[in-house]
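Section 5: illustrative case.
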């Protein structure tokens, strides 16, 4: 498995992780399917969602793959009147990541990042390694600290 930029950033900070690959053969499996392919509980596999508020500011939300982001809760968490999902075509230019391979680590610019509060009950979680077909198992608290992220009910 080739090192991704996410792995290099974590290595540079001395944060340990375990890489896991799963077949993605050009398609974008759902997060639940990716969890199944890795043999993991979907509640421990998190997806990264990029949004834009009414103020035109960008926000990153990270939630379990089987869940849907409550835009109302997300907006309240960041003090926005409303919030909308970023269009897939805008993801790569803004973050450097493609749909299905977006990680909260190593985006072109650091955006305010919020994890679903369920992360507080998990010692480790899986996040994207920054490319389709590769995930990282990482200590939850180390990840939150590294990103300066907050936890909120989403």
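Designed sequence:
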């Amino acid at each position: 498995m080739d090192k991704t930029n996410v792995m290099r950033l974590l290595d540079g900070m001395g944060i340990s992780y375990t890489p896991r690959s799963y077949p993605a053969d050009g398609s974008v499996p759902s997060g639940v399917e990716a969890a199944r392919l890795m043999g993991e509980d979907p509640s421990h596999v998190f997806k990264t969602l990029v949004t834009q508020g009414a103020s035109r500011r960008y926000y990153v939300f990270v939630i379990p793959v089987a869940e849907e982001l409550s835009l109302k809760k997300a907006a309240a968490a960041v003090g926005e009147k409303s919030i909308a999902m970023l269009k897939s075509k805008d993801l790569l230019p803004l973050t450097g990541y493609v749909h299905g391979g977006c990680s909260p680590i190593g985006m072109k610019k650091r955006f305010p990042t919020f994890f679903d509060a369920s992360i507080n009950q998990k010692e480790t979680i899986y996040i994207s390694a920054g490319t389709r077909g590769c995930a990282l198992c990482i200590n939850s608290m180390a990840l939150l600290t590294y990103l300066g992220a907050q936890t909120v009910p989403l």
